[in-house]
Structures are given as structure tokens and as C-alpha cells.
Amino acid sequence: MTDFTQFPKSGTIILAGATGELGFLIAGFVVRRGGSLKSLVRKGSDNARIPELRRLGAEIIEVDFNNVAELVKACSGGTCVVSALSGLRDVIVETQTRLLNAAVEAGVPRFIPSDYCIDYTKLPEGSNRNLDLRREFSTRLNNAPIAPTSILNGMFTDLLTGQAPVVLFKIKRVLYWGDADQPMDFTTTRDTAAYTAAAALDTTTPRFLRIAGEVATIRDIQTAATKATGEEFGTLRAGSLGFLGSMIKITRALSPKNDEVFPPWQGMQYLHNMLSGKPKLSPLENDRYPEIRWTLVREVLATKH
Ligand SMILES: NC(=O)c1ccc[n+]([C@@H]2O[C@H](COP(=O)([O-])OP(=O)(O)OC[C@H]3O[C@@H](n4cnc5c(N)ncnc54)[C@H](OP(=O)(O)O)[C@@H]3O)[C@@H](O)[C@H]2O)c1
Fold first, then answer.
1. For this UniProt entry, which segments traverse the membrane (predicted)?
2. Average pLDDT estimate for 194-200
């Protein structure tokens, strides 16, 4: 494992969402790199990660995320605000806007929004509900007097052994629609966190940083699954992308679950986007922090066994 203490950086990171999956990992990497960390948590939260964050050396600041004055106070002295919040419009657009306004008022020079996704700048409005919210927030961010940096990482590779029904371990098939040779971007949650922490402590980042632990086609995933498990995997083409588009409409009509962050139809939208090739990340900035070692799809699939 990389000893990040060899690459020390200074800075005070104000992190929102540190009790979440990605945020907690970002917190760990910020501290390992020598940054100071202030974690904003919801008032009265008894999340089990809070004592862990304290042990890491983070300052825990309980805030009412609806109260800009409290957020301004919490942001003061920060060199970069990092959001790893997860949610729908109330969080991605509204809460992040309050956090942004507070960061500006507190004089924080930089802001990393909770994007961590495929390239939504290349996708048409309406093709992915969650990414439309990110695009909407990005308009506000672009107009604010602060330097924004979005981390775009494709799909969390971890989802291939979890929520994303792509690698069907039981029947040894890789499920897809459209073209099995379409390159797609995958980065683990951990590698995304390591990179985000490095970017948070780097004062010279551009508007977008695009990364991929591995660029893989459906056929590459098939090979990775075969190597990872020692068993022969095949592919399973369920139809065209047009057919997947119709399935998304039907699933959304039958099971809208509009108040869930990741209802099945939204996961299908994400897969449709990726398989279309439109949000493919380019250019990749993987080498910006050469100390980061990227985890391959095969390594993630091997954890399933
Ligand atoms: N590219 C991909 O494949 C992929 C996959 C998964 C996630 N992501 C993205 O990664 C980011 C982080 O996701 P995650 O999985 O780490 O999320 P998570 O585990 O659900 O954590 C969400 C964090 O946001 C906080 N939060 C939620 N609603 C809040 C509110 N109204 N006010 C204040 N704090 C609130 C939570 O605090 P509490 O602990 O108090 O609830 C928690 O700290 C999101 O942008 C998500 O979309 C990307």
C-alpha cells in the first residue's frame, strides 16, 4: 500500500459527507497526506463513523445544513470545501448551493462538488435524472467567485460485484445492451477517494479532472471475470440500446420510486449512458498524482470469490 505520508501537502479541507462511503475514505486520505480536516456532520448525528473520524484526527463540526450562517462559520479557514453528499435535488442542488455560498462568504478559495460520475457535460438533458441535478448545480458553481474542480471517475468498479447487474456470477455471463466493444470508465470508490484527497490538497487543479482505474469494454469485463474466478465467462446481449431505453421507460412507469436516490431505472439510465459512449472520459488525468496505484476490474471481481 502506498505510503502517502511521503507526499505531504498542507491545507485545511472542509468535508461535507464524511460519514458516507466515499466521504469517509476521502477523510482518511486527506489525513494520511498531512492535510487538516474539518468534517461537517448533521446536528445530533450518532453515525458510528464520527468517533472513527475523531480518531483520525478530524475536527467534527455539527451544523444545520439549512443554516448558511452556521456553514460560513464552519467553512472559515478552509483551503478547499469538498462535498461527498449524496441525495436528490434538495441535497445536490439546494444543500450544495448553501454550502457553496457559505464557502464564498468564508473566503474559501476552492470547491469540489459531489459529482464523482461519468462526463455529464457530454450528455443530453433528460438522459439521467441524477446527472441533470449535477449539471444544474454546476451552472451555479461556474458562476460563483470560487475555483471549482469536479472529479469525474466513471462508474465505481465496486458496483460490478454489487448493485450493477452486469457480471452475472451465477450464470457466468456479462450482460449488456448495444456494443460489446464500447470502452467505459471504471474507478473504485477507494481510488476515487485517494485522488479526490490529492486534488483537494493541490492548489492548481483545473475545472475537471477525469480519471479511470481501468477503461474496459464488455469483452474486457468478460476476460476479467474469467481470470478473476478461474471459470469461463460469456457475454449475454439483451438487445439494442433503443430496447434498453424502452425498458427504462417501462421500469420507471411501473416502479417510479422517484424519492429514492438510486431506483432501478436510474441505474439503467447510467448503464445506458455508459454503453452509448457519450460520457466517455477524455483526456484522463490518472498520472497527475503518480503515487496512486489504480485498482483493476479483475482485482475487484476477484473479491467476489
Ligand atoms: N460513480 C458511481 O458509480 C457512484 C456510485 C455511488 C455513489 N456515487 C457518488 O458518490 C458521492 C457519495 O456517495 P456515497 O455512496 O458515499 O453516499 P452515502 O454513503 O449515502 O453518504 C452520503 C453522505 O451525505 C450525507 N447527507 C445525505 N443527505 C444529507 C443532507 N440532507 N444533509 C447533510 N448531509 C447529508 C450523509 O450524512 P448522514 O450520514 O448524516 O446521512 C453522508 O455523509 C455521491 O455524489 C454519489 O452519487 C458515485
1. 12-31
2. 98
Of all protein residues, the one whose alpha carbon is nearest to atom 13 of ligand 1 is 86
Residue 243 falls inside a structural domain: no
Judge whether residue 9 has pLDDT over 90: no
Our mutation pick for probing the ligand 1 site, out of 22, 81, 130, 163, counting the most ligand atoms within 8 A of Cβ, is 22
Specify the number of domains making up the chain. 1
Which residue segment(s) compose the domain that 91 sits in? 8-154+187-212+279-291
∠ Cα 87 89 94 (to 5°): 100
- Alpha-carbon distance values, 203 to 36, 109, 114, 139 (Å): 15, 9, 18, 22
pLDDT at 19: 98
Tell how far the Cα of 236 is from the centroid of ligand 1, in angstroms.
32
In a domain? residue 247: no
From CA 186, how far away is CA 156, in angstroms rounded? 6
Tell me 117's DSSP state: B
CATH number at residue 108: 3.40.50.720
Which atom of ligand 1 approaches the CA of 115 most closely?
A: 45
The alpha carbon of 217 and the centre of ligand 1 are apart by a number of angstroms equal to: 27
229 occurs within a structural domain: no
Q: What is the pLDDT of residues 229-247, one digit of tens each?
A: 999 999 999 999 999 999 9
Are 83 and 114 a contacting pair, CB within 8 Å?
Answer: yes
* pTM of model > 0.90: yes
Q: What pLDDT is attached to residue 45? A: 95
